């Protein structure tokens, strides 16, 4: 469902990337000058070395930390490194963030979780392109995004800010986003490395207690779980998308603070993945200059405390750190700036010259493709404006367009609220009654007698604090949003619930015919929602997270505080069974499954075929036919899951894992043949004995379907000489 705007931005990004790639003049039209390190025929490493050697000791130490004192409290950049004017090393400017640029007015895109619901890497690229473009036109060189931490618990406050519970989906979205952003000539910053999967109860300890606070918690996670669930998106960001910087997280991982972790930074990021960019600290995540210099932190943007000149000089004078360590970190920063063209172009200025209309179109296209129709009993949707007389629109979110705040806060350039979008699309002939939902009786009154009642609700949670419960309202505020839905549903049998939430409990789902998940819809949410409600567009979204049927079903439930929220440490006892893997392995039926979402039409799957491929990185191809058997054009996300065999009885394998996806548009009665590549990694598990990816001999289940719980065609593949009954293919 790509509009022309989204495509246009993607094409623009591609053209820009090509222009960058094809500009190897010996001296570019940049701001570098005529210094020896300005020779563009030299490698980034050689140029960094030349510059490093003329920097004084104090200049090198100063380059370890940011210089801007205002940091996040300012209205402009989120951080600044002043550079060294004596040598023409320009200032570097940093900004947040993952849902839009956090300085001045910017396009408020749908949340990254909404973006994930599109299952579309090209829309992720369009989102990255918008943010990269605006970051640049607001004078920034580096943008602190994307957030790629896997959702471990639906209580996680930053669930909206990342791509959900599945490593494959998160990986594809992250790569698309980074390519889009970096194609605009800014450097992306994948975050938060690693295992920053909970916020705690809020505030800064010890003022608010220690339980599971992101600032302190030590995540106890085994090697396989880390490699298979939390790390793949970071790995692909480095190896595939060539991200320039990585933000290390607040929390500790297996004992060491993430920004001091030799294991995470030196061994995994730099040695195993070959990362050549630089690691910067989350704000306040660097604690100790000695451990950070040794552990691998290259730059502390704000506040420069651990890497402040005083602290670093004290560590050097005490013989606890060396100038060689300082130099190595500064060299990595400089090398990255050379490699990403920072010296060889003009400074970006805060000219605000970005295309607001085109970017709003991208926001609308993404949201249209993200809105997920979870339930539609009796075909209540789509609404037919020609047959309607009245609509009730209930709930404050219908008349607002909130951003969740925190570092993902964005001040939108313009807003189309749901109320405005619906009223405009419904037309003058339809009476639209609005009630803010402040009283249950008034809401029920507004709903009664209308042809349909739309009730809008949000949930809590945000950066810095996990949700206190999985219900819509946890803080005791009245009226409770669950009660509001029940009151409206009791007054009007044609109630449509519009969720602007992450995964929540839906105890009223049997009492309402229709449920739409609109996520944090972005500034064009109202326009997108109107298109979907009235059937101008098919609901394009699929759930990137499981909606549990009860709180006791989640992997962090139960009376085990060690598993969540933890105290000073938290134990990932579920191992690799994160997200739907948990529900599948434990035989728990979710309320709404990962990957699910309805269309206004129907699709039929047939002719599963697996073909072995020789040579290249692809081992096999899975083919399937999908046909639109309904009467309307529609969109489908065709999902490939693999079930890997257990290499030994003690090695748990989830029943199925997403390994491929195709988002398609089909006209009625049209058919398409799709092909999914299967590479070695798709068939591999992390073997802790050899510390490497391994392919176990055995029978692999190949499943293609509409969701993780709605597999339409399946077969077995025999790998490495295994005998499988009815195998459709063999792979060595
Ligand atoms: C957040 C980061 C953000 C930084 C700067 C931190 O609190 O965790 O995601 O980039 O602030 O705003």
Short description:
The chain is α/β, with parallel strands linked by helices and 732 residues long.
Describe the structure.
This protein has 18 helices and 28 strands. It is of the alpha/beta class. The strands form 7 sheets. Strands 1-2-4-5-7-10 form a 6-stranded mixed β-sheet. Helix 6 (167-182) packs parallel to helix 8, helix 13 crosses helix 17 and helix 14 packs across helix 17 (525-533). Bound molecules: beta-D-glucopyranose.
Report the sheet-strand fraction: 15-25%
- Share of helix among residues? 25-40%
What structural class do you assign from the helix and strand content? alpha/beta
Termini separation comes to: 38 Å
Task: Characterize the main sheet.
Answer: 6 strands, mixed
- Taken from the alpha-carbon principal axes, the silhouette is globular
Residue windows where pLDDT falls under 50 for at least 5 positions = 1-25
Q: Are any ligands bound, and if so which?
A: beta-D-glucopyranose
Radius of gyration (Å): 26 Å
Kindly state the number of beta strands: 28
Task: Figure out the total of helices.
Answer: 18
Average of the residue pLDDT scores = 93
List the helices and strands and how they pair.
Elements: H1 4-21, H2 44-54, H3 57-62, E1 79-81, E2 92-96, E3 105-106, H4 112-117, H5 121-136, E4 142-144, H6 167-182, E5 187-193, E6 218-220, H7 223-230, H8 232-239, E7 245-248, E8 252-253, E9 256-257, H9 262-272, E10 278-281, H10 289-295, H11 309-317, H12 323-339, H13 356-370, E11 372-376, E12 390-394, E13 411-412, H14 418-426, E14 431-435, H15 440-447, E15 452-458, H16 481-491, E16 495-500, E17 514-517, H17 525-533, E18 569-571, H18 580-586, E19 603-612, E20 618-628, E21 634-643, E22 657-666, E23 671-679, E24 684-687, E25 692-695, E26 698-707, E27 710-719, E28 727-731
Parallel strand pairs: 2-4, 3-13, 4-5, 5-7, 6-8, 6-18, 7-10, 12-14, 12-15, 15-16, 16-17, 27-28
Antiparallel strand pairs: 1-2, 8-9, 11-17, 19-20, 20-23, 21-22, 21-26, 24-25, 26-27
Helix pairs in contact: 1-5, 1-6, 1-13, 2-12, 5-6, 5-13, 6-8, 13-17, 14-17, 15-16
The chain binds beta-D-glucopyranose.
Residues 72, 78, 96-97, 144, 191, 282-283, 407 line the site of beta-D-glucopyranose.
């Amino acid at each position: 469902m790509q509009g022309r705007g989204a495509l246009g931005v993607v094409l623009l990004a591609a053209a820009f990337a090509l222009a960058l790639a094809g500009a190897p003049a010996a001296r570019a039209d940049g701001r570098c000058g005529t210094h020896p390190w300005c020779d563009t025929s030299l490698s980034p490493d050689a140029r960094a070395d030349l510059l490093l050697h003329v920097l004084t000791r104090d200049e090198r130490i100063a380059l370890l930390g940011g210089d801007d004192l205002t940091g996040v409290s300012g209205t402009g950049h989120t951080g600044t490194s002043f550079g060294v004017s004596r040598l023409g090393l320009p200032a570097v400017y940093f900004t947040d963030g993952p849902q839009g640029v956090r300085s001045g007015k910017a396009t408020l895109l749908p949340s990254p979780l909404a973006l994930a619901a599109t299952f579309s890497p090209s829309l992720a690229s369009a989102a990255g392109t918008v943010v990269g473009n605006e970051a640049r036109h607001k004078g920034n060189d580096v943008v602190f995004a994307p957030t790629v931490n896997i959702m471990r618990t639906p209580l996680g406050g930053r669930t909206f800010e990342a791509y959900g519970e599945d490593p494959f989906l998160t990986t594809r979205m992250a790569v698309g986003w980074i390519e889009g952003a970096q194609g605009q000539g800014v450097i992306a910053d994948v975050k938060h490395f690693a295992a920053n999967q909970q916020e705690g109860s809020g505030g800064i300890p010890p003022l608010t207690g220690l339980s599971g606070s992101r600032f302190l918690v030590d995540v106890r996670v085994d090697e396989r779980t880390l490699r298979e669930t939390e790390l793949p998106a970071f790995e692909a960001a480095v190896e595939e998308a060539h991200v320039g910087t990585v933000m290390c997280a607040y929390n500790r991982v297996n004992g060491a603070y993430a920004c001091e972790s030799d294991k995470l930074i030196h061994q995994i990021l730099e040695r195993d993945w070959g990362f050549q960019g630089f690691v910067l600290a989350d704000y306040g995540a660097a604690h100790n200059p000695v451990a950070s210099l040794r552990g691998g932190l290259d730059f502390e943007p704000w506040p420069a405390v651990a890497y402040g000149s005083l602290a670093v000089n004290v560590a050097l004078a005490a013989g606890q750190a060396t100038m060689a360590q300082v130099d190595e970190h500064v060299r990595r920063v400089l090398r990255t700036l050379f490699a990403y063209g920072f010296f060889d172009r003009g400074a970006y200025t805060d000219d605000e010259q970005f295309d607001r209309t085109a970017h709003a179109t991208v926001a609308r296209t993404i949201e249209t493709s993200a809105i997920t129709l979870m339930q539609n009993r009796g075909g209540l949707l789509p609404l037919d404006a020609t047959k309607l007389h009245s609509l009730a629109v209930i709930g404050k979110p219908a008349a607002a367009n909130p951003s969740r705040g925190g570092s993902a806060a964005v001040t939108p350039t313009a807003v189309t609220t749901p109320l405005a979008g619906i009223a405009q699309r419904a037309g003058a002939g339809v009476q639209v009654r609005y009630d803010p939902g402040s009283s249950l009786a008034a809401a029920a009154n507004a709903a009664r007698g209308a042809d349909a009642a739309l009730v809008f609700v949000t949930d809590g949670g945000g950066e810095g604090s996990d949700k206190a419960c999985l219900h819509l309202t946890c803080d005791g505020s009245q009226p409770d949003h669950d009660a509001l839905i029940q009151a409206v549903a009791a007054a009007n049998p044609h109630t449509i619930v519009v969720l602007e939430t992450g995964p929540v409990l839906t105890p009223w789902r049997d009492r309402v015919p229709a449920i739409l998940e609109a996520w944090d819809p972005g500034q064009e949410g109202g326009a997108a929602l109107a298109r979907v409600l009235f059937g101008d567009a098919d609901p394009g979204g699929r759930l990137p997270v499981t909606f549990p049927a009860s709180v006791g079903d989640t992997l962090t439930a139960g009376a085990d505080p060690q598993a969540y929220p933890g105290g000073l440490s938290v134990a990932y006892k579920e191992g690799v069974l994160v997200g739907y893997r948990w529900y599948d392995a434990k035989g728990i039926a979710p309320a709404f499954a990962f990957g699910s979402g309805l269309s206004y039409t129907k699709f039929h799957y047939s002719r599963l075929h697996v073909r072995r491929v020789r040579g290249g990185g692809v081992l096999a191809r899975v083919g399937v036919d999908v046909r639109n058997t309904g009467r309307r054009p529609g969109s489908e996300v065709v999902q490939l899951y693999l079930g890997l065999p257990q290499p030994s009885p003690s090695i748990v394998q989830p029943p199925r894992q997403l390994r491929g996806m195709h988002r398609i548009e089909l006209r009625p009665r049209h058919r398409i043949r799709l092909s999914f590549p299967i590479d070695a990694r798709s068939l591999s598990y992390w073997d802790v004995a050899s510390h490497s990816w391994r392919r176990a001999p055995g029978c692999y289940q190949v499943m293609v379907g509409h969701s993780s719980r709605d597999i339409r065609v399946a077969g077995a593949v025999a790998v490495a000489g295994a005998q499988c009954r009815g195998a459709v293919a063999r792979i060595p």
